[in-house]
Amino acid sequence: MSLTIVRLYHDLLGTYGDQGNAEILIHRARARGIDVELVEVAPHTAVPTQGNIYLLGGGEDGPQTAALEMLAKDQGLNKAISHGATVFAVCAGFQIIGSTLPGADGAKISGLGILDAETIYDSSPRSVGELVIQRGSVVMTGFENHQGLTRLGRDVSPLGSVISGIGNGLEAASCTRPEGAHDGNIYGTYMHGPAMARNPELADEVLTSAVGELVEYDDYWAQALAAERRFTLTRKV
Amino acid sequence: MGSLRLTTAAAAGRLASRLSRALGRGRGETMYGRVLLAIDPQALTKLSANRDIVLVSGTNGKTTTTGVLARVLADGTDEGVSTSQFGANMRAGIAAALSAQPRHRFVVLECDELYLPAMYNTLAPKVIVLLNLSRDQLHRTGEVRKVAKLWHDTFTRDDVTFVIDRDDPFLDYAVSQAGHVIRVTFGGRRHPDAATCPACMALLDWSQGDYRCTCGLGTQLAQVRSDKRFTGPARNSVLAIEAARLMGAVVPIEIQEQLTVNPPDRISTYVVDDVAVATRLAKNPESWRGAILATTAPQVVLAVNARGIDGKDTSWLWDIDYSALHGSTVVCTGERQLDLAYRLSVQGIDVTVAQNFAAAVRSLDSNSPIQAIASYTAFQDLAAQHMGIRKATGGRT
Q1: Angle at A57 between CA A53 and CA A62, to 5 degrees
Q2: Which are the contacts of A122, defined by CB distance < 8 A and separation ≥ 6?
Q3: Which residues are within 8 A (CB) of A128 and not within 5 positions of it... i.e. 6 or more apart?
Q4: Hey, are the CB atoms on A15 and B145 less than 8 Å from each other?
Q5: pLDDT given at position B23
Q6: Cα–Cα–Cα angle for A101, A130, A120, nearest 5°?
Q7: Measured at the alpha carbon of residue B93, what is the angle toward residues B91 and B99, in degrees to the nearest 5?
Q8: Residue-range domains of chain A with CATH
Q9: Which of A62, A130, A225 sits opposite B338 (nearest CB)?
């Protein structure tokens, strides 16, 4: 079995440490005997269309807009999705794959339209701090640091429901305090940490969407970190 | 001191400072400064009048470089130099440093990045040294380019001379409206946080190992060319020497060599059960990269916390390449030891964890060298002699 992971514009969307998600996916896939190739896509180079998992991270306002413009022009990501690829997008990346978002000067611009989700900037203070969510039976944690608030479209599920923190910050049809988004193979979240370091279940869910069922393995440090964060942060709630 | 109010404020500040020290709340400078400023809000303006002030700011190396500059300036001019102590670099700490020896003509002050605009406007500095800007405490200072823009919008007068490392595009942008700038180059190097231009947002061209932008950023000539091989601490020494020269100091060639070949760094040695551990302060991706590369011992202790000043989000630990630690014995400690342990294990490095610094050191072979890297509050905890650890030598400034 082989897997191609595509990390998009690490230079532009690497401000908040989300590039660790790629290393975690590679590590967890190899531990299951899966061959993995990582493709780094630099600005102004073509986005491959045959990848299995595409990763976008958080970045600053200007680089976010630059990344969006290049992805919109390239169309490789949209083609890959039409072939069934998985997308995992964090923070600025989550906003980019939505339908609209504020541009570098604050005016509303079109996103990639991969997710039915609109992001607005209002006068509320930046959402900064630990974020704890319930996703099914699992409590997940991350660190959020974002200006935008995101409203999910009617048919898009949140990734989870906020226990503490802000998350998307705007009510959705199915959830009063939504965090992130999940629509088929498309994932969006405001959780840094990186999200896949602190939530091994999420990493495995994304891997499963690309390669099918995974065997168990001894991921001691991942489980220890996830458990410590969940214990520490829910104890305070 | 000029006014009765200022004299009263200083006396009250000294009392509060003694009280603060007696209660074990630190060294007392910040408390002194707070009381001083509460009683005389004009204290900063009054204490800075008719003095030649140099400010030192940037993400990494402020405390060390401030110490180097103060020493070089004192030795090279035979004048008294007042300076910041122990990294107190916000309003209160600066007030305390200014009032410590109010008759000294020269003052060298470390200044927090976000306080620099206010100090630029209040203290009328002669020279400002800008060392570098990179990601740090993202939850507090915000993104690098926001700090650069704040500086850029502030630095518009021509009564200050800036000394900058022009290889950092954020700094060249920050001073692009300033009247007088001494640009020092070390031959160019890729900045990990500057894919796009701080001025115009276009992608920077780094293909030649230095940045170019269609908007013209980076095209100003450098006045000083220095050595490409210099690490961060050595580069900061070069900037300090240039600033001291601007203030009239004579800096002998031997001193220059000493400060660049073997530059001072933020290292303290702590002793656990008679085992000495050289411990380096590192607090953000850039300083960790430097610290990992500078680590040579076969046994290494890494300590990470995530309290306010450390940066509450530890995601940046994943941005660092730890491959230089392959083959070393590594023990992680601190409140976020598990974040670090998982990150290292993903990079294929064997790790263990320990409850605290002393336990980490005790778990290692006492007959083989041990070095440590500690994030900000982990380092402060050690400096406060917690956990029964003895500090062998004072932190070199």
Answers
A1: 135
A2: A149
A3: A144, A145, B139, B312
A4: no
A5: 65
A6: 15
A7: 100
A8: 2-236 (3.40.50.880)
A9: A225
Q: What value does the mean pLDDT of chain B take?
A: 89
Q: What CATH code is assigned to B267-391? A: 3.90.190.20
For residues B203-213, average pLDDT: 92
Q: Give the residue from chain B lying closest to A20, CA to CA.
A: B318
pTM for the structure as a whole:
0.86
pLDDT tens per residue, range B130-148: 999 998 877 766 678 889 9
CB contact under 8 A, B318 and A19: yes
Burial class (CB in 10 A: 0-12, 13-18, 19+), B152: buried
A53 close to A202: Cβ distance less than 8 angstroms: no
Instruction: Provide the 10 A C-beta neighbour count for residue B95.
Output: 27
Amino acid at A192: H
Shortest CA distance from A141: residue in chain B: B313
**How close B93 comes to chain A (CA, Å)?**
27
User: Distance (Å, rounded) from C-alpha B233 to C-alpha B258?
Assistant: 12
What's the N-to-C CA distance of chain A in angstroms?
43
For B14-42, what is each residue's pLDDT tens digit? Answer: 777 777 776 665 666 777 888 888 888 88
- Cα distance between residue B50 and residue B1, in whole Å: 12
Alpha-carbon distances, residue B58 vs B52, B144, B290, B397 (angstroms): 20, 11, 16, 16
Rounded CA gap, A221 and A219, in Å?
6
Buried b / exposed e over B13-38, threshold 16 CB at 10 Å, is bbebbeebeeeeeeebbbbbbbbbbe
CA pair distance A158, A186, nearest whole angstrom? 11
Do B346 and A27 make contact, defined as CB atoms within 8 angstroms? yes
**Strand, coil or helix: what is B184?**
strand
Fold of the B42-261 domain: UDP-N-acetylmuramoyl-L-alanine:D-glutamate ligase (3.40.1190)
